[in-house]
């Protein structure tokens, strides 16, 4: 910082040069502590109470591990179902750590979530996946998951086109 300009380097190493006459607002996101939010996406078919318990257990295991215990300022918070998009439910998990020390525990949390989802046979969320387990219930009034048959032809087995698809050659 000089009398004429302020230079700030971002986390991705971008250097910002700001004339002091143009500075109107300053935000310090790392004074004393840092907050990181991890949005965990789980398939809509999962029981939200089971997912909440699983995420709370994983977050507390990371918080209480010998490697990360000293980095945390407060216990992680699991905020519940924040959004439903397509067939995914989004559960935000908030970590409050010492300033700029949030990256390692967040990476470890994500790794453990991935392994736990597989262990508990839970699908990760996908906003483009269609959830239709109870479509028949809406049509027939029966509480039975809908059965769908496989398509007659698998389009992934098509041969690639020879030539240029834009010019026809």
Account of the protein in words:
There is one protein chain. The protein is built from 3 helices and 6 strands. The protein has a domain at 33-119: Alpha-Beta Plaits, CATH 3.30.70. The protein is of the alpha+beta class. Helices cover 24% and strands 22% of the residues. Helix 1 (48-64) crosses helix 2 (103-119). Strands 3, 4, 5 and 6 form a 4-stranded antiparallel sheet that branches. Strands 1-2 form a two-stranded antiparallel sheet.
Descriptive terms for the model:
alpha+beta, two-stranded antiparallel sheet, 24% helix
Mean pLDDT: 83
What's the CATH class of the domain at 33-119, please? Answer: Alpha Beta
Order of helices and strands: EEEHEEEHH
Q: Uncertain spans, ≥5 residues at pLDDT below 50?
A: none
Distance between the termini: 61 Å
Q: Quaternary arrangement of the chains shown? A: single chain
Helicity level: 10-25%
Number of strands: 6
- Helix/sheet category: alpha+beta
Biggest sheet layout: 4 strands, antiparallel
CATH architecture of the domain at 33-119: 2-Layer Sandwich
CA gyration radius, whole angstroms = 24 Å
Please tell me what the overall shape is: flat
**CATH level 3 topology of the domain at 33-119:** Alpha-Beta Plaits
Beta-strand level of the residues, as a percent range?
15-25%
Total helices: the number is: 3
